[in-house]
Amino acid sequence: MKMKKLLLFLSCVLCVSADALHEDIHVIGCSYIHGGVMFGLDREELWYADFEKQMDVSPQPTFIQPIGFGAGAYEAAVSNLDTCRQNLHFTRESLKDYPAQRDAPSGVMIYTRNEVELTVKNTLICHVTGFYPAPVKVSWTKNGRITTEGSSINTPYPNKDGTFTQIARLKFIPQQGDVYSCTVEHLALTDPLTKTYNVETPETPETPETPKPSVGPAVFCAVAVIIGLLSAAGGIFFILKANKCI
To answer: Whole-structure pTM over 0.85, yes or no?
Structure first.
């Protein structure tokens, strides 16, 4: 029988299979402004609801057989979000003075999904982790100007230490000299955190080094000289000894 761990945090439900080879998760999280519903497997997103665009998203890799969640999955997520906010309201009413814990992001990284080739479509990833509460706000710029086209952000993913991870993506076409940045805002930050990415031509392979002379013959010659000197010294020793005996 599978053992299940249940974590309830302001209507954020985390289900973990403790004795199986895989770990599955279902997150329902909310505030009065933001909300998220997500299904995941082995720390990878399978499905989440994008409430801003009013649609569901399945960021599953193309090389696996897609895992479906059935018709009406987005509508069910909207219903779960409403229930979450009702529970949040009742919780705040009963715990009027609960402490507001805030942890700033411990790590922000920006990198590309695939190896960069100029003029070939790619995706920039802004990986934010170690923050509490969720979510963070991520904005993108291209050459100093705010850009939103092709951008998306996933539902906050809970870490084992109680903090969250969130990943923002930006589809782009690399052009030599372009500069992109992702800026992260969070309740625990006094100033936003910004990471930049410069598009550069991939480095050309280095010219093979000129083969260096082998040290083998030199070592061999040195050893031969030493052996020769030792042999000469041995011969002189025996000659002198023989002379004494005469």
So the answer is: no
